[in-house]
Amino acid sequence: MKTLKSSRAVSTRYVGVGRPHSLKVCRAVQTTDPLQVVLGWAGSNKIATDKLTVANDVATDVPVLVAAKDLPAGDAILQVPDSAWITADTAQKAAIGKYIGALEPWLQLTLLLLAEKGQPGSSLSQYISSLPSQPNSPLFWSDEELQMLEGTQLLESVMGYKQFFFEQYQSLDEQLFSPNRAAFPVERFSYGSFCWAVASVRSRLHAPLDADPVALVPLADALPHRRNANAAWKLKSAGLFGKGKVLSVEATRAVRKGEAVVMDYGPEKLDNALLLDHGVLDASSAKGGYSLTLTLPEDDRYFADKADILERIGLGASATFGLVRGQEPSLEMMGFLRLMQLSGSDCFLLESIFEAEAWSHMCQPVSAANEAAVCSAMMDGAREALARYSSSIDEDLALLRDGGVVAGSRQEMAVQVRLGEQEALDSLLGFFEGRAADLAALEYYQERRLKRLGLMDEEGKTTYDSFFKDGIA
């Protein structure tokens, strides 16, 4: 087995008692909240907010945006024009703009937040003041809290990200901050402040405005994350000849007055990815799993031939597959594994005569030896990965079942991550153990070929035995 790396996938396991999806009406907020501030920003920018108000969530007692009236499915709850988005163009129009134009958009937004934070006259002051001062991403967890993630892919990602951001800061400090200290004062552009701004930007970026273009959308990005969402972001054309854009928050189902307006930050993302990027995890509807990264070894004598096959189907020499509890590996993953393990006499399938159909052969068992090699590699890798966890599946299930963790706590998040990853690996191990025990019952390339030629029947018996028996051949 090759690299086993971080992310999570869908799981339907037990996640706690008394948390069914149901309508929850929030109670009114008693004190001024950052959400009220950003609502004020929306009003000053002539953005209609009559369908939203702020109330304390019943479950968490945290102020959230709720429906101010009953809203039908498909209703545009909030619309924010592109003129109100915070983009790289916004950053380049700021005082630091002339210094940062060559940076990636997310870095430009990061430095913009730092430059404008605490500036009374800034047009972004209301938005920035609404951002949490302490992000909930594991990037900001204490060493003791990170110990709860021991053995997980998430911890591996956290450490990798920390190193990456530190190197980014060092490069910026050396090449940009220090030579232009008047524009980038130390007290404002410290490493700690940089990490806060990076986490704030990452946590607020959502599709379809998280790639091209990259944009922060005030108020719209304040919706809480829930897997059972009732709203979603939609990008639409606006203005004269449709040249402008508007971010529309639309109801995906009917929303009752007083119900929290919530969105799924990443329907296709795994929980540990959302926790890392956004600092959120919906324990009531967990999507636990494991991401398996497979890479063709460059020292494989047939590397070029195998890479060509993968390129023809849109894959590279490295690919990542989501593993989910109770779900068999995908056809694509099995094909990649067989291609990786293809060796010896089976390599005739790499010859140019098979070029057009090589991948289709990989998507079915090639030979008993090849399939056995796949099973062995995956079983070894899964066992090795499972051995790294500090707790077992049963222990983590017991913690959730018996109330051993506080709902919404970082401990609960850590347990959910550990459990989701281990369950996916355990399912993977079980699948390949069963397959290894059933190798004799599988149908391989040579049998399929003989059947296509009419030289073998469906029971696996040759159709030309009578030739020899009757002395014909």
TrEMBL record:
A Pfam family it matches: SET
InterPro entries the UniProt entry points to: Rubisco_LSMT_subst-bd (IPR015353), Rubisco_LSMT_subst-bd_sf (IPR036464), SET_dom (IPR001214), SET_dom_sf (IPR046341), SETD3_SETD6_MTase (IPR050600)
Entry keywords, A to Z: Methyltransferase, S-adenosyl-L-methionine, Transferase
Name the record gives this protein: SET domain-containing protein
Superkingdom of this protein's organism: Eukaryota
Gene Ontology terms: biological process: methylation
Gene Ontology molecular function: any one: protein-lysine N-methyltransferase activity
